[in-house]
Design brief:
Length: 178
Amino acid sequence: MSDFGVCYRGGERALKGETLFRATDGHLQFKYAPVSALFFAGFALLPFEAAKALWFVLSLVFLFGVVRMGLNALPPSPVRRGLIGALGFLVMAKFLARELELGQVNLLILFLLALMTKALAGGRQIPAGIAAGASLFFKPYALIFLPYLLVKRKWKALATTVITAVAGFALPIIAYGP
């Protein structure tokens, strides 16, 4: 779980108010927004092996949550959902195993974006914006949805995304000052 190790170290540094981004870390340098280090600070309160185990379990929860939301979004069809889920899992198994092995944040981001999509489909714009904004704390993938929100005039979702992102990006001021 080398990628999780980077996040864990970022969480440790955030707890101590230390510099997150260090060239001496080489390839395993912290590359996320400072707010994500605050998220991982919770894991850094645990011993590393316990934190890894917790992250692994959470990653599985994110994965199964995404699969469940995806299967529930399918229209009724003669093909059984279980078969579709199993085939999809088999196609993606190699990549999912690598995600889990490295302890990456991509399953968390995918889960947040699936929650956003589900909320939008249900007409719940504010929860959709919170999920999209929170996903931006880790990687900028959700930005691709902003033009959609503009074109579809999902103003509440757009505003909530921006407010959530701005609040999250401002949060490290607590640990680091302005």
